[in-house]
């Protein structure tokens, strides 16, 4: 019995009244790449937290991100081979402090699907449509199509739209089979007075997240042939499951500003595996200083403009394939020749990743995998990386001389433990 199957089997034996809201077609075997949106009835959220806490212990998985919200707390759970994000709607589904559809109506319109209590398709289609209209002022065609599919030529029940003005109900039913962007905009304008959400709604919650940021940054360092790309490819799907596809990948830096190559009209220097990492001529002192200074803007301001806003308030992961520290370990690759003390000074200025995974193995093995650089240079880089890893408190060595499966498992375990320690004090 897998985690999800056991999850619902055990949940069904409790007194918790729940309802899965959408994307339940593959349950209880799988979420099919989606998060788990679950509505918890009345005051059962505390019981659900107790249930979840015991279940996490049973399967030896970790809470790696958590967003506290009285209306809908979000839990990101991660194990070595899988992950899951749960959005637990507390008591009902609210917008602007008002229920979209009364909870009593939602629970009166549930069915049992393969042993899981879920919202029936008709009610689910209405709920998804209403949420989309109010959140985005327009509606994605997939929600319109599903609504039309479920209702055809029949009218939507009044009880499902009891929170909306009569004008809204009449206009929606009248135009149901010909809904377009114009109709959706009018529906939003009719309903917005009933669901007036302040511009500062949720501001306090977002400020509280700054103390324990739900997002996480990871930098992967290693010579060519150390296994960076393969390990990143192996762990990304697991992280995507736990963070509901909010995993972002960047090469070397935040990339908020264009590369110097692009500014000069040249083709981007990175477009996949590099076959000749030291093929370009190193800039002189002045050119190196200008190049380093330009990219320092990206590592500082670029980070705070692009990475930090999401990391600070959302459950997400930023993966950096190489990072600033490459200037210390392999400056020739970046065509920069400056004193090492200057690179180390920059290290104290930039925002650093939450964890730095240093991937390495015996230099001879790495050279055998990718012989683009001389063996002596590979030996130098491995030694430099080991010294860096030993001196940096956020750096962890991952031995990649073992099988790729074992190396990937080692990396994900380190990531899980470092993510989870931030939320150790959270009592689900």
Largest β-sheet summary: 5 strands, mixed
Strand order of the largest sheet: 1-2-5-4-3
Q: What is the percent of helical residues? A: 40-55%
Structural class of the secondary elements? alpha/beta
CATH H-level name of the largest domain... which superfamily?
P-loop containing nucleotide triphosphate hydrolases
Overall strand count: 14
Rg calculated over all Cα atoms: 26 Å
Assign the CATH architecture of the largest domain: 3-Layer(aba) Sandwich
**How would the global form be characterised?**
elongated
Strand content: 15-25%
Overall description:
- There is one protein chain.
- The chain has 428 residues and is α/β, with parallel strands linked by helices.
- A hairpin with a 4-residue loop joins strand 4 (74-78) and strand 5 (83-90).
- The strands form four sheets. A five-stranded mixed β-sheet has the order 1-2-5-4-3. It has a five-stranded parallel β-sheet with strand order 11-12-10-13-14, with helices on both faces.
- It has two domains: 3-191, Beta Polymerase, domain 2, CATH 3.30.460; 213-423, Rossmann fold.
- 34% of the residues are buried.
- It contains 16 helices and 14 strands.
- The longest helix has 29 residues, at 285-313.
């Amino acid at each position: 019995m897998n985690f999800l199957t056991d999850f619902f089997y055990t949940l069904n034996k409790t007194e918790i009244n729940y309802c899965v809201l959408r994307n339940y077609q593959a349950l209880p075997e799988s979420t099919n790449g989606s998060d788990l949106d679950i509505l918890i009835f009345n005051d059962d959220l505390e019981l659900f937290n107790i249930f979840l806490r015991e279940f996490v212990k049973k399967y030896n998985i970790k809470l790696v991100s958590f967003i506290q919200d009285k209306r809908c707390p979000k839990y990101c759970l991660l194990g070595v081979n899988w992950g899951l994000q749960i959005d637990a709607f507390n008591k009902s589904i609210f917008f602007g402090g008002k229920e979209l559809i009364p909870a009593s109506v939602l629970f009166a319109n549930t069915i049992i699907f393969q042993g899981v209590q879920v919202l029936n398709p008709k009610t689910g289609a209405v709920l998804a449509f209403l949420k989309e209209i109010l959140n985005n002022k327009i509606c994605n065609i997939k929600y319109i199509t599903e609504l039309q599919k479920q209702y055809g030529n029949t009218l939507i029940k009044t009880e499902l739209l009891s929170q909306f003005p009569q004008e809204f109900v009449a206009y929606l039913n009248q135009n149901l089979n010909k809904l377009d962007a114009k109709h959706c905009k009018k529906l939003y304008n009719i309903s917005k007075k009933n669901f007036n959400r302040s511009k500062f709604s949720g501001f306090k919650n977002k400020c509280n997240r700054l103390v324990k940021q739900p997002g996480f940054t990871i930098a992967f360092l290693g010579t060519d042939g150390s296994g960076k790309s393969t390990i990143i490819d192996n762990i990304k799907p697991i992280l995507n499951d736990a963070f509901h596809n909010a995993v972002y990948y960047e090469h070397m830096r935040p990339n908020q500003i264009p590369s110097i190559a692009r500014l000069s009209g040249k083709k981007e220097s990175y477009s996949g595996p590099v076959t000749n990492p030291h093929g370009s001529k190193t800039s002189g002192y002045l050119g190196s200083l200008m190049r380093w200074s330009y990219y320092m803007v990206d590592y500082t301001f670029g980070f705070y403009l692009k990475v930090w806003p999401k990391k600070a308030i959302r459950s997400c992961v930023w993966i950096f394939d190489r990072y600033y520290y490459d200037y210390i370990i392999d400056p020739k690759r970046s065509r920069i020749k400056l004193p090492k003390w200057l690179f180390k000074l920059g290290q104290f200025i930039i925002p650093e990743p939450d964890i730095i995974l240093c991937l390495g193995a015996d230099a001879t093995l790495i050279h055998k995998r990718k012989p683009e650089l001389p063996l002596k240079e590979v030996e130098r880089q491995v030694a430099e990386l080991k010294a860096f890893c030993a001196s940096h408190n956020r750096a962890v060595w991952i031995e990649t001389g073992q099988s790729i499966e074992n190396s990937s498992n080692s990396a994900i375990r380190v990531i899980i433990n470092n993510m989870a320690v931030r939320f150790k004090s959270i009592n689900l």
